[in-house]
Amino acid sequence: MAVVSSGDPGVFAMASAVAEVAADPAFHDVPVRVVPGMTAANAVASRVGAPLGHDYAAISLSDYLKPWEVIEARLRAVAAADLALAVYNPASKTRREQLVRARDVLLEVRSPETVVIIGRAVGSPQESVTVTTLGEFDPDQVDMRCLLIIGSSRTEVTERPGGRIVHTPRRY
Ligand SMILES: C[S@@+](CC[C@H](N)C(=O)[O-])C[C@H]1O[C@@H](n2cnc3c(N)ncnc32)[C@H](O)[C@@H]1O
User: Fold this and answer.
1) Phi/psi of residue 57, nearest 5 degrees
2) What is the pTM of this model?
3) Which of 15, 54, 114, 172 could bridge 9 with an S-S bond, Cβ 3.0-4.6 Å?
4) Hey, which of 6, 95, 130 would you mutate to test ligand 1's pocket, going by the most ligand atoms within 8 Å of its Cβ?
5) Mutual orientation of helices 68-81 and 97-107 as an angle, nearest 10°?
């Protein structure tokens, strides 16, 4: 039997659910193999350059299986640590307030000039990628097909003749 999941099955996806079931002694004799894939954060990053080229965190904004207090505490920790951040599940039709709140929490510590990349449906015919800032971006334009990358304080946008490139330097 195969359980299929988009992106990487181990990132906010079905491999954890399968592992939970496999941990049950009743299923100890069922072999489990996880096949890695390309996660959305890396796919979106590749479209603009290398915004995840240095230390970064990944967080899901879904409070379906996780209390919002945990999400907000982690956002504050990431902001304080000046990590770049990949935001999965940023919004859905019914979850509209979480991203607004997340932006406000990050803005308590981070500059409004912080680079934000919004990748939507990357790899599909509906793909779009927007480069903006924490102060300028509009949460109303974000849906469940989007992944956001919030840069660190060192993430830079460089305009080049062939188009802009975004990167987070490897060196301090
Ligand atoms: C349940 S998570 C699954 C993540 C998936 N396992 C992965 O590794 O990319 C769903 C979230 O992943 C992100 N996502 C998945 N596919 C995407 C794509 N093609 N473009 C942009 N974001 C995507 C979005 O944030 C979406 O809300």
Assistant:
1) -120, 160
2) 0.97
3) 15
4) 6
5) 30
